[in-house]
Each structure stands twice: as structure tokens, then as C-alpha cells.
Design brief:
Length: about 600
């Protein structure tokens, strides 16, 4: 007997026939969707948000009877009205303060096309690749919205390295008075109190700090609040408002606090724009960004409800683990993303110089090889003792610790995980970074082979940056990372802007030693056309963004990227993960426990 669905008093009701062969399975399914049973009517009430998914699942179990009239009512009850508005008011090049650059055929007019795409909708994602001029496009759009639609209030949130760069871009690409722009942060924790300010610039961490500062007025102990404490409404003062989330991949994690505080203020802004060259390396990272644009794009579902709709969820490790996107949902999600964004690639639209990426393999020195293999053996013995077998997640989770034997073994001495392995500790104490690190000679060869070019050296460890600074002292290097000493009277953002300006304009600074986590976004370093990745991270987005700092608009020389890799080590696996985006999870997390053969493959230990 079929399942019957009816609509009564704006409630979606489900009737299950008891003598159905799959009655018990259907009841279990309905319960799992938190439907409410009425013992008097013997009907189940379906939550509107869950109707579509439940209908799909039930249709695989039995035939469903639903009248056309009730189907139309359900469409109305389950439909979340879109807030996206379209306009038809083209901007001409003559109206722009700065002329756009012209791309290569057939994308000669791509920048003016993107400005018009943003200007002619109130919600949009500018997902052009790094180096295509997203800041120019956004600020030119803002300038036109101010002039033609009278929208003056703008909150512009960007990466930690991008705030002062964006301020300079406003001065270049718009006619907005200097005094109308304020930077929010440690020195200005209450920027929304000043109604005379039209544009507030800050980074994501600063915005979290600002939000917490306002929260203190209400309850200083509350960290995860439900409503924004920021007086956005008073600051906007009837203005429709523009929210710009530059480097929007920073809010792709729905569970992060900095993401949550941004979501709380989004409803106050009629105009919302996202911009990033790396929107999502996995599909679930679109959820938060789509919801910012318009909750209707995610059907007004919570994150976990949305995951259940689009993904296979749960495995032996966790009930909430994300396995894979449902094949029948891939096209649906793709269409949703495509209708609210533009995605362009630098190689397609720009006549940029060639970019040569070369893997530069080196061998372990004897002492570093001994440290690496000894450390791996020590850690695997520890995991074996703790779990009884080599638990795959424990092995993968050890990577950040074990990679120190490659990047800077000296850091291991301060690490809590190191055991009383006297041989290992003795080897680390004897390790001399300048003489025993395998990559030093390769780095010096590269620097000496490019005597007339500026060079950016990327590293993920401040301690390594300090060592390289001393090694390269003759080249008057600039250094910037998360542990850089900030000059008195400067903020970190100001210091970053100062470092970038010196490197770009001062001939005496041949080398910039930059922290990947700090300088991978929102800066232009085209004074250099050589870059060396000394050591990296496991984060694909940071790595990908970093490589684009010198290969972008304004670069007129061929670019050479050297990725230094120690062969037969975890260093190679780390790079494969960056190239494959999720190589480790796809390759090694398919088993609950790992055998010795797989362990050797992971750590590239040969000849053992």
C-alpha cells in the first residue's frame, strides 16, 4: 500500500498504512527526520525544511500518493523566498575613476563585465583567481553604488595582511574622502560608534575582537552569543549597506567563531559580495559562503541539515564524518553556485608571463635522516602501545609533529611528545641547521643563480625564518611572520603594509622571508619574479594563495617557483597533498588500521 501525503491547516501530514511490507522501516525513517506523531489521527507531521529529503528517501521504499493541489501547497510551505535582486543598468568605462586593464581574447573586457555583474545584483560571489584585479572590481562597484544608488555605508572585511593594502586601493580606485574610512582593530575596537565614518575596514580576527568588545556591554562572560552586539542598525542609519567579504574562504568553516559573528551581521546589509580566488577545495565549504549571500541558496537549512541533504554522512570513526557528496546532488549544487558568481582563471583572461614551477629534490644529510627515521619509529611505537595497533587517524594526526624533523628538528626538543629516547635527543642536540639541513645548499644555489632578481622565500616556521635571515644577511632580507616583533606605535597590519612597501620599492632589499600563514593573501609582491617554498603547510588554500603573490597583474617577467623537497620523506607526501588537495584523506584514511607496508609508503622510508 502506498504512503499518502496531505496538507491540512498549513501542515504537511504523512499517513502510513500499517499492513505495508515496509511499515517498520518507513516508521524508523520518519522518526529519524523528527516527524511528530499524532495518536488520535495516526498522522505524522513533517517539518517543512525536511520534506524534500524525506520525500526522496521514502520514494525509494514505497509508492507515494500526493495530489497536484497539495503538491503546490507544499511548494509554497517549503519554499524559502530569495532576496537576490537583479538590475539592468550598465556602467560604462568612462564612468570609472581608473581604466580597467584589457584581457586577452576573447576576454578583453572581463574587468568591466565583472564590475557590471556585481553592480547589477545585490548578492554576488567574485571568485576570480588571484591576480585578476578583484579589489579593483569591488571598489569600482562600490564607487558606482555610492554615486548612483546612494549607498554609502560599507563594511569591508579582508585577511590579516590585506587591510592596509585595501585602504590604498580605495584611494586609487575611488573618490571616497580619506576621513570617511576607518580601520577597526586593536587600536579602534568600537569603530561603529562613529556614524560619520562611511567605510570600516578590518580583518576577520579584528572583527571578532570588535564583536567581543561590544558584547562586554551586555555580558562580558558570553562568547558564543545569538545576536550581534554591534550597533550595525544605528551605524547604517537607514542606509541599505554593503558587506564585502574579501578572501571569503576564511568564513568557509561554519563552526568557527569568526564565521558565526559575520553571519550575525549579514542580515543588516542589503548588498553582499564575496571575493576569493580559492572559494572551496571541497564542496561543503560553499555552505557558509552561500548562506551569507542568501539563506535561500542553502534552503535556510542549518549546516548539519544541509550536509544530510547533500552528503553521505557517518562512518566507523564518527556519526558526523563527511564521506562524499551524493552524486545526484552535484549538479544541483553546481547550478546554485554558478548562478550567483563569476569564476575566472588568470591564465584564461590575462596575458601574464609564464610561471615555471619546479620541484627541487634534495637528499637527507646523514644526521637529519637518522633524526627523521628515529622519530617516526619512536612515534609509531607510541601509537602501537596506545591503541594496540597502528590506528590510521592517530598516524595522520602525528604528521604536524613528525614534519618538524624535516622543517626544523631543533623544535622537537621543546615538544611534549618527545619520549626519553636518548639516541634521538642526542642526535637533535648535535644537529646544526646551517650545516645539517638538506635544503640550505639548494636554497643558496637558487639565490646565487638569480643575482639580479628579487626573491620571496616562503616558510611556515618563524624559527626557520630567523635562521634564514641570519644566513642571508648580506642580501639585507626583510622578514615577516606571526612572531615578528612589531615596531612601537604600529599594528601588525601596518607593519605588514610597511614591509610590502619596502620590498616593492627599495632596491636594497633583495629578499623577503615571508610566513605563508601571514602573507599568502591580499598582497602584491611583483617586484620579485623568483620564489622559493622552503617549507610549507598542509593547507592547500594558503599554499595556492601564496604562489599567486608574485604571478599576477603587474608582473612582466617570467616567474620561477622552486619547491624544495627532501626526497624519501614525509615532505614529498605533504606536497602531494597540496597538489591533490586531499591526497592524505583519500589515500590513507580508507583503513582503520595501517600495516607496516603502508607506513613505509606514507613516510617514504625505503631500504628498511
Amino acid at each position: 500500500m502506498p504512503i499518502k501525503i496531505i496538507v491540512k491547516d498549513n501542515r504537511i501530514l504523512l499517513q502510513i498504512v500499517k499492513n505495508s511490507l515496509v511499515f517498520r522501516s518507513i516508521v524508523d525513517m520518519v522518526k529519524s527526520y523528527h516527524c511528530i506523531y499524532d495518536p488520535e489521527t495516526h498522522l505524522w507531521e513533517i517539518p517543512p525544511k525536511k520534506f524534500e529529503r524525506l520525500h526522496d528517501d521514502l520514494s525509494e521504499m514505497d509508492r507515494i500518493v500526493l495530489s497536484e493541489e497539495d503538491g503546490e501547497k507544499i511548494d509554497y510551505l517549503t519554499n524559502v523566498p530569495e532576496q537576490i535582486r537583479k538590475f539592468n543598468d550598465l556602467i560604462s568605462i568612462s564612468e570609472l575613476k581608473v581604466m580597467p586593464i584589457f584581457g586577452k581574447h576573447p576576454y578583453e573586457a572581463f574587468q568591466i563585465e565583472d564590475i557590471n555583474a556585481c553592480y547589477n545584483t545585490n548578492r554576488f560571489g567574485l571568485f576570480d583567481e588571484q591576480g585578476t584585479g578583484k579589489s579593483y572590481i569591488l571598489i569600482s562597484t562600490i564607487e558606482q553604488l555610492r554615486k548612483k544608488r546612494g549607498i554609502n555605508k560599507i563594511l569591508f572585511i579582508t585577511s590579516s595582511s590585506g587591510v592596509y593594502n585595501i585602504k590604498k586601493e580605495f584611494e586609487r580606485f575611488s573618490n571616497i574622502p580619506f576621513e570617511k574610512i576607518a580601520i577597526g582593530g586593536v587600536k579602534n575596537r568600537r569603530p561603529f560608534d562613529n556614524n560619520s565614518v562611511d567605510i570600516i575596514l578590518c580583518n576577520y580576527r579584528s572583527f571578532l575582537l570588535i564583536s567581543d568588545e561590544y558584547q562586554k556591554e551586555i555580558n562580558s562572560n558570553v562568547r558564543n552569543y545569538r545576536n550581534t552586539p554591534i550597533p550595525i542598525k544605528d551605524w547604517l542609519a537607514e542606509d541599505q549597506g554593503i558587506l564585502i567579504l574579501d578572501e571569503s574562504h576564511f568564513i568557509s568553516n561554519p563552526k568557527a567563531r569568526q564565521t558565526k559573528v559575520v553571519h550575525l551581521i549579514a542580515p543588516f546589509f542589503e548588498y553582499r559580495y564575496l571575493a576569493t580566488g580559492t572559494p572551496a577545495d571541497v564542496e561543503w565549504k560553499y555552505y557558509s559562503q552561500l548562506k551569507i549571500l542568501d539563506p535561500a541558496l542553502v534552503k535556510d537549512l542549518s549546516y548539519y541539515e544541509w550536509l544530510e541533504e547533500y552528503y553521505s554522512i557517518g562512518n566507523r570513526f564518527s556519526n558526523y564524518a563527511i564521506n562524499y557528496i551524493k552524486p545526484n546532488k552535484v549538479k544541483e549544487l553546481t547550478k546554485i553556485v554558478e548562478k550567483v558568481c563569476i569564476r575566472r582563471f588568470a591564465d584564461d583572461v590575462l596575458s601574464l608571463p609564464e610561471h615555471f614551477i619546479r620541484k627541487y629534490y634534495v637528499e637527507f644529510t646523514d644526521i637529519q635522516r637518522n633524526i627523521y627515521r628515529n622519530l617516526v619509529t619512536d612515534k609509531m611505537d607510541n601509537i602501537q602501545s596506545q591503541f594496540g595497533r597502528l590506528d590510521s587517524r592517530a598516524v595522520i594526526n602525528s604528521f604536524q609533529y613528525l614534519i618538524l624533523a624535516i622543517d626544523n628538528p631543533i623544535l622537537l626538543l621543546n615538544h611534549e611528545q618527545i619520549t626519553e629516547n636518548s639516541t634521538l635527543i642526542e642526535s637533535i642536540n648535535r644537529f646544526n641547521f646551517y650545516e645539517d639541513h638538506s635544503k640550505i645548499e639548494a636554497l643558496m644555489d637558487i639565490v646565487q643563480n638569480h643575482p639580479n632578481e628579487k626573491i620571496v622565500i616562503w616558510t611556515s616556521h618563524p624559527s626557520v625564518a630567523n635562521i634564514l635571515q641570519h644566513l642571508l644577511i648580506d642580501y639585507n632580507p626583510l622578514v615577516i611572520n606571526g612572531e615578528s616583533l612589531i615596531p612601537k606605535g604600529m599594528t601588525l597590519d601596518q607593519y605588514k603594509a610597511d614591509i610590502v612597501d619596502k620590498f616593492q620599492t627599495k632596491l636594497e632589499h633583495k629578499i623577503l622571508i615571508a610566513g605563508i600563514q601571514v602573507m599568502s593573501t591580499s598582497v602584491t609582491l611583483v617586484a620579485a619574479n623568483i620564489q622559493v617554498v622552503y617549507d610549507s603547510t598542509f593547507n592547500y588554500t594558503e599554499y595556492n594563495q601564496a604562489l599567486a603573490r608574485i604571478h599576477r597583474i603587474g608582473q612582466n617577467r617570467p616567474v620561477y617557483t622552486y619547491v624544495l623537497l627532501i626526497d624519501e620523506s614525509l615532505d614529498v607526501i605533504r606536497h602531494k597533498n597540496l597538489e591533490g588537495k586531499d591526497f592524505i584523506n583519500k589515500k590513507f584514511l580508507t583503513k582503520e588500521y595501517l600495516d607496516l607496508k603502508t607506513i613505509k609508503e606514507i613516510f617514504n622510508i625505503k631500504g628498511e
